[in-house]
Write a structure and sequence with these properties.
The complex is a heterodimer of chains A (about 120) and B (about 110). Chain A contains no helices and twelve strands. With about 120 residues, chain A is mostly beta strands. In chain B, a hairpin with a 2-residue loop joins strand 7 and strand 8. Chain B has about 110 residues and is an all-beta fold. Chain B contains no helices and eleven strands. Classes of the chains: A mainly beta (about 120), B mainly beta (about 110).
């Protein structure tokens, strides 16, 4: 079974600085999807960014970008120009390829990000 | 309304009560999920429905009973719960492609 590991329970960053959140996963599949979700305190979990494993180019969404290292099974999230609103729990998630008919998603334990003004 | 909605947002119940959680998605997705989120633990997938058919039940106790009458609605019926069932229950939906799940705001459940 696929597992997702987030080795940093907590991280902090100064406002306007850059922070990188780590995620590694274990899988024997060659094609899959990876996601980062953000869950602000007492608020809804929202999708931040997604990456298809067959794409070599790292995904980018405004201030959020990933460093996808397929051979190393690593999928880190970089937040540039951190803002106070970025403070949240961040979850890394793995989803099997569509061909597997497996609809579920594996989540990491999460990293709590604090942004200091 | 748009996205995924859940009601109620907060629920307090005794161990002998029967209650239901409701989830509705307005995204035209064909898969829906129930997750349990407890403090300091990864999200636990409970149930998966694909085109109204249950495709996964991750060894969830029978005191949790899901129901999916159509691809837009998902219920979680609760009865004789235990205090350790207190958690945030999240509903999500997805389409086959591109594969991302979209979450509702959750129901914060407290079992006394």
């Amino acid at each position: 079974a696929q597992t997702v590991t987030q080795s940093q329970p907590e991280m902090s960053v100064q406002e306007a600085e850059t922070v990188t959140l780590s995620c590694t996963y274990d899988t024997s599949e060659s094609d899959y999807y990876l996601f980062w979700y953000k869950q602000p305190p007492s608020r809804q979990m929202i999708l931040v960014i997604r990456q298809e494993a067959y794409k070599q180019q790292n995904a980018t969404e405004n201030r959020f970008s990933v460093n996808f290292q397929k051979a190393a099974k690593s999928f880190s999230l970089k937040i540039s120009d951190s803002q106070l609103g970025d403070a949240a729990m961040y979850f890394c998630a793995y989803r099997s390829p569509l061909s597997s008919n497996n609809n579920d998603m594996r989540f990491g334990a999460g990293t709590r990000l604090t942004v200091k003004p | 309304e748009t996205g995924v909605t859940q009601t109620p947002r907060h629920l307090v119940m005794g161990m002998t009560n029967k209650k239901s959680l409701k989830c509705e998605q307005h995204l035209g997705h064909n898969a829906m999920y129930w997750y349990k989120q407890s403090a300091k633990k990864p999200l636990e997938l409970m149930f998966v429905y694909n085109f109204k058919e249950q495709t996964e039940n991750n060894s969830v106790p029978s005191r949790f009973s899901p129901e999916c009458p159509n691809s837009s609605h998902l219920f979680l019926h609760l009865h004789t719960l235990q205090p350790e069932d207190s958690a945030l229950y999240l509903c999500a939906s997805s389409q086959e492609a591109p594969g991302a799940q979209f979450f509702g705001p959750g129901t914060r459940l407290t079992v006394l």
